[in-house]
Amino acid sequence: xxxTLHDVARLAGVSIKTVSNVVNDSAPVxxxxxxxxxxxxSQLDYRPNLTARSLRSGTTGVxxxxxxxxxxxYFAELADSVMKAAEKRGLTVLIEQTNGDRERxxxxxxxxxxxxxxxxxxxxxxxxNEDAEFLRVDYPLVILGERVFHGPADHVTMRNxxxxxxxxxxxxxxxxxxxxxxxxxxxxIIGSAGLRFAGYREALDAAxxxxxxxLVGYTTxxxxxxxxxxxxxxxxxxxxxDAVFAFNDTLALGAMRVIQEAGLVVPRDVAVMGxxxxxETAYSIPTLSTVDPGREEIAERAVEVLQERIRExxxxxxSLAAPREIETAFxxxxxxxxx
Amino acid sequence: xxxTLHDVARLAGVSIKTVSNVVNDSAPVxxxxxxxxxxxxSQLDYRPNLTARSLRSGTTGVxxxxxxxxxxxYFAELADSVMKAAEKRGLTVLIEQTNGDRERxxxxxxxxxxxxxxxxxxxxxxxxNEDAEFLRVDYPLVILGERVFHGPADHVTMRNxxxxxxxxxxxxxxxxxxxxxxxxxxxxIIGSAGLRFAGYREALDAAxxxxxxxLVGYTTxxxxxxxxxxxxxxxxxxxxxDAVFAFNDTLALGAMRVIQEAGLVVPRDVAVMGxxxxxETAYSIPTLSTVDPGREEIAERAVEVLQERIRExxxxxxSLAAPREIETAFxxxxxxxxx
DNA sequence: GTGAAAGCGCTAACAA
DNA sequence: TTGTTAGCGCTTTCAC
Lengths: 339, 339
Description:
Two copies of one chain form a homodimer. The first copy, chain A, is of the alpha/beta class and 339 residues long. The first copy, chain A, has helices at 5-12, 16-24, 31-44, 50-57, 73-88, 102-109, 160-173, 191-206, 224-237, 249-261, 295-316; strands spanning 62-67, 92-97, 119-123, 141-144, 154-158, 179-184, 216-218, 243-246, 271-273, 290-292, 325-328, 331-333. The first copy, chain A, has a six-stranded parallel β-sheet, covered by helices on one side. Chain A has a four-stranded parallel β-sheet with strand order 7-6-8-9, sandwiched between helices. A two-stranded antiparallel ribbon of chain A has the order 10-12. In chain A, helix 1 (5-12) crosses helix 2 (16-24) and helix 9 crosses helix 10. The A-B interface holds A 2, 47-52, 54-55, 60, 62, 69-71, 73, 76-77, 79-80, 83, 92-97, 110, 112-113, 115-116, 138, 224-225, 228, 253-254, 257, 260-261, 279-280, 283-285 and B 2, 47-52, 54-55, 60, 62, 69-71, 73, 76-77, 79-80, 83, 92-97, 112-113, 115-116, 138, 224-225, 228, 253-254, 257, 260-261, 279-280, 283-285. The first copy, chain A, binds a DNA duplex (16 and 16 nucleotides) through helix 2 and helix 4.
């Protein structure tokens, strides 16, 4: 059985309070006593029981991270960044998957594991702005993504409209004028698809390039196969285009595959631009130009804000500060697909 | 403040024991009483404090999963499978990253979060058989991977030698006789590289195809860039080959890129075979033939064995049963790269 | 500088 | 069938 404070105290011939003081540096301890305690600790290989500590202190040092699916590279890379940011701050991350499903997302907010975590970083995909009130919860919560804005919880996101505009301008800068988009969602205003589409339109308008609805590829999901299908439809339709802006890298890679199968050359015949800067975009054939959404910064800020809220809460019982909207920086990454 | 058992008991006019019985189904409760308790629970939105329950019961319902790096697709997909298998059994997964680093792996075995988890599934990459004794720990532990065999902990792995042999035979079956390998590790006997190399040799020998050391591409890591480099070296060396067996999919994808850049056609000039059956191998150009290692089954078995050990332990204090070596089934997946 | 004791919320042994 | 009570291991007043 693992050693407890009592065992250490008995061996060192002191009270458990003294041992606790040594372990937590919570009060000055005479040098000689400290040495005796430390000796006992190492002799017994004592390690504090975190569960007991949690019960007493009310915090666990664990934060939750809810993402749609870990096997989607974007979320695996995000999880990696969040774990690294958390580790720097002495926090452990408990990852959970929602499948991007509205119902499961709502459940997640009330999952039993919330009792195990001090707060939650929640990458929302299925819920919409109309669900915002569900985000009014009694624990620290930081929302990620583009589904809910100005809700009752802190929110970290990138400038989607500006980034999509910059991506489109990058293509315009190459002299491309017939720029198709892939990944649009009919009638969506907010959400990544809606915002990125808006950025695309802004760029066209600013450059006085007419918008052609035949160049819009709608897809429900943003997987590789959806990018491939949308591109096939575009090619079959016979509409002319000299560039494609896909709303994420996975769509772009799927589309690029179909373009090449059709005997066209990237970027000579069609320039391709993605969005997310996944690791693998640096290794595709050709390498894929994309938007770096600054995942590291998003993760850092999210963990930072969450930790602040956790601290506020443990001091004051609850935080009254207004929810924060934090926007992070992006960067256009030019690679072979848009030379 | 969140409601406790006491609050519910007071509201329902019963003792906390009765509430506890209702919550845990631990003893029969009169229908009428149960209804009153349930009403109080929902009125107060009572949810049990898992920390307190853990302190009392000595278990947490959380298992650890240590993997090298989540951004490597193989481990993201493995993590997904483990989480799904765990969820079926009512367990939550705490993921931690080791970076495949021996030192960090050793630390992981004694990480403070072990106090938070009932057991650990540990995908080992940096440690070797000589470190096996470190795996003699006082909590349930299941090892994954090919670095440690017959150690003091349970071990779930696939038949690497047989799988690599089958993959090579698949290429031989196409009439290819000059089969290069990529990802070999000089002098390694166990470890994925050593075992897969052995399987390759077995297949050649069985088919009486002479082994040519010039066809062996050594790489330290198994990333895309390593596959690309190894293939470049192979092409530069001028040695002839009509097929490549890469020891994982990522290497294969990197190699395939270089093959195509060199103006060769896959599979006409060079057939390519990977290993792992990553999601993305179904979408590459051409799609990649590979070995499906049965990640789902590995995950299922690992969680199952771990849970058994956890239960044994909570019953008997400790498990005396000998460590188990479990081997799972694999499957050759033929795709465009080996038509 | 150190000790005694209460109690975090829960489960389980024992009583009634 | 239900209630009482003793801890799980720790932190934290409050004495000394």
